[in-house]
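Hi V.,

Quick status before I head out on leave. The structure for the redesign project is tokenized and pasted below; the design run finished overnight.
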């Protein structure tokens, strides 16, 4: 991982200060992993994870004292922040030769949702059918854009209150989709026995059901395609009240009203879309409030 940044500030007046900067990140993902080109499974695989080289992050902010005297301040800013591609992704994809089982394996047949040839993959045996964990070669580095705007007001000698608006947009988030799933069937009490679901719960009824045998390519079980195709959205209002004491002590209370949405959730915890055919239906939307002190 390599990164460089530059930052500067400019006081336009006693009441207005600008802060601005630029950062560049380069994530040197593993490359040059040899493949057995005589093996029909390994032959189409790339030799490493795509290195995304255009990760430029602008940052800008301001502090404005509209009245003077420093008792009322308005602050705002924008920034882009890049994440990292977890080594877990590289490990699963690049150690394929150490974890692959070729017994009874056959090359993948083409299908509408089968992984493309531009993918690196890790495969393990699963009963009579093998499984894949491919990574798309064009995978990008995840990032989030953040905009904030807030006002802070001091009351008396030792009280202060603030309100801040925060808006985040996440893009190119890591997502793992099972691209070998056939079209789902809506689970009902009538068809549950034929699908092998005994005593379905109320939460299961009316939801898409895939089963363990509904696969586009019958030679394989699950094909968990890792890609940077996820997104997220967050906006919130933050309220703060602070009481300052002598000797540098203070007491602060915060209240946050927010809502977050995404279609990939937490990649490291394997919380992926329940319905890869319709991520919008399975992506979580979480309005929330929180109070801290």
């Amino acid at each position: 991982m390599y990164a460089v940044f530059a930052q500067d500030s400019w006081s336009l007046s006693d009441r207005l200060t600008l802060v601005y900067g630029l950062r560049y990140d380069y994530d040197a993902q593993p490359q040059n992993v040899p493949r057995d080109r005589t093996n029909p499974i390994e032959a189409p695989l790339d030799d490493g994870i795509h290195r995304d080289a255009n990760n430029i992050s602008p940052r800008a902010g301001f502090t404005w004292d509209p009245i003077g005297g420093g008792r009322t301040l308005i602050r705002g800013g924008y920034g882009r922040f890049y994440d990292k591609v977890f080594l877990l992704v590289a490990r699963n994809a690049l150690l394929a030769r150490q974890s692959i089982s070729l017994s009874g394996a056959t090359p993948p047949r083409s299908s509408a949702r089968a992984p493309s040839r531009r993918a690196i993959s890790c495969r393990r045996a699963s009963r009579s059918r093998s499984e894949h964990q491919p990574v798309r070669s064009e995978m990008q580095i995840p990032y989030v854009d953040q905009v904030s705007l807030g006002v802070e007001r001091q009351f008396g000698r030792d009280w202060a209150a603030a309100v801040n608006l925060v808006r985040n947009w996440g893009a190119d988030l890591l997502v793992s989709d099972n691209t070998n799933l056939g079209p789902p069937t809506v689970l009902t009490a009538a068809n549950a026995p034929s699908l092998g679901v005994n005593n379905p719960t109320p939460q299961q009824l009316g939801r898409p059901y895939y089963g363990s045998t509904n696969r586009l390519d019958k030679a394989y079980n699950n094909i968990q395609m890792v890609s940077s195709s996820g997104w997220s959205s967050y906006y919130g209002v933050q309220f703060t009240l602070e009481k300052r004491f002598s000797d540098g002590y203070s007491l602060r209370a915060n209240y946050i009203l927010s809502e977050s949405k995404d279609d990939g959730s937490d990649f490291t915890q394997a919380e992926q879309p329940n319905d890869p055919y319709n991520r919008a239906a399975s992506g979580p939307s979480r309005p929330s409030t929180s109070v801290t002190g």
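Above is the designed sequence. Residues 96-127 have pLDDT under 50 and may be disordered.

G. will cover questions while I'm gone.

Best,
W.
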